[in-house]
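Let us begin with a simple case.
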Amino acid sequence: MGETGLLDTFERTEFVHEGKTRDVFRLGSGPPVLVLSEMPGITPAVVAFARKVVERGMTAVLPHLFGVPGSPPTPLVYAKALLPACVSKEFAAFATGGSAPVTRWLRALARRECEVADVGRCGVVGMCWTGGFSLAMAVEPVVVAPVMSQPSLPLPVTARHRRDLHASADEIEAVKQRARDGLCIMGLRFTNDALVPSERFAHLKELLGDAFIAVEIDSSPGNPHGIRPRAHSVLTEDLVDEPGHPTHEALERVLSFLTERLVSESR
């Protein structure tokens, strides 16, 4: 656990699937929301977001995928997490036309968390490195509130990478069918974020139409809210949690999206 002790109040368990064991941190009660941490891991800002989920009557479930849980995103911590993840077959950071293999483990975790909570539905919030995982996980019937915050994989090195959604053709078709049946997917990005090109959101809109809820925040030079041009983390590091700020409004939209589909529907 990280030096900050921020996770001391979380229940820590292990989950095993297909021979892979990972730690899982859980806090709260009610329908589960898998909070998939951004690079470099379960940082204080990710934990802060998870606590906001708990405050809305849901269980925050944080699987440890990379990095040191609870550690702040210092350059050294970032480098130690990023380099192994870039070459890991589980994350497939540069691959197009398919999902990251780790999403199979995450789907199984989603099913397990629904069983633990004795509910039939859960949410998923992916961020940055894990942002696109929410799309691939949406093939799982229990996932009814998927959120893609700044989905950065595959890394946008070519025009093909810029449009790619880090999901297979079969997974995309399954999500399209679920969208026709009423599933909605939310996506968030800063407009000037080079890691999350506009082509990726345009592709999602082409495929899903109104079922894709795009939240795009102006980060162009000279934008009215003074958001830095290199802003990336909508719900965490670049969040200005003050009424009237577009990132605060984006946070509220995400929390309302989760609450409406998980808490309200379960009553």
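The second case is a distinct protein. As before, the sequence precedes its structure tokens.
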Amino acid sequence: MGQHMTRKYSHLLVSGALLLSVAACQDTTGTSASSAALLAALSSVPVGYGDLATSYVGTMTASASSAGLWVGGGREASFDHGGLMGGGLGDAFAGGIGFPSRGGHRGPFGGGLPCNGAFDAASGRVICADATTHGITVSRSAKYTTAAGVVQQAFDTLTTNTVDLQSKVAGTITFTRGADSAEAGDHGENRWGRGRGPFGRLLGDTSTILTASTIITSSSARHTTGLAQGSTQRTVNGSSAGQETTTGTSSKGSFTATRTVGDTTTGLVIPVATGTTPPYPTAGTVTRSIQATISYVGSTPVSISRREVITYDGSATARIVITENGVTKNCTRALPHGALTCS
């Protein structure tokens, strides 16, 4: 499929267990005909995942539109050029972020909270004020310590060595059918309602959504060490977990859809760059998974699942094991942005 069509579908394949799509533009492994209708659920992650500490490329709540966006993902909804799900693999996990200046606050996994939070002496954490946008609330906090383990009340670009981040996203998105208007794409094509077809019709399906409400609950935790000036490497451990539950009515009848998303980062090591070339991870694993199910009243539920295990061994190539609906492929990917090669 040509680059024009790839770009077009990257706009159209918005997530949610309900968004139905054609399998041709996705890297899948033996997907059955029934579950192929759920492929779009693998293309992105829930709204607000971009506010979490995660390996996925997600949409921040501030960038989402409650009127024009029904269930998650936004315009990052796609498999990346390397064939990985959920909007793709974040640049920090692929060696795509450099160290543009000196100091521990720059480079992959560097820095602290994006707010001037209040220090809580009891927990030793800096806490951001909750932020609510489009019905979704984001909560964040962090604990900063020096290499000697001394708790700090704010991130210091020279002495902060360890950052422990915690984030939560929760809320409800209500589908607004009147928002299903066509938008002009990059090449003149129409993008109907950021993922739906004309008049609320799901892509690849004949049903039309009448009403829908999606409850989103997601969270993440990340522990990064080696941030202080003079460190030779950074080590990252963390996890995220998210769930969407959608209920509504359609021309096919009432439906329920669920989607669970998560990832775990274990022992990821990023050398601190000594030159201008961004460093890629040299050790560790990242495990990612998405499962989705849709059920219309009177019909058999349909499900899809995918798991990606990315392993770094010190070379410029990551090993990736992909299991989709029980079918496994062994793949490799040149870092940072090589194509996926599978056997």
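Confidence is low (pLDDT under 50) at residues 1-27, 30-37, 66-76, 180-205. Residues 75 and 166 are 25 Å apart (CA to CA).
Keep these points in mind for the review questions at the end of the chapter.
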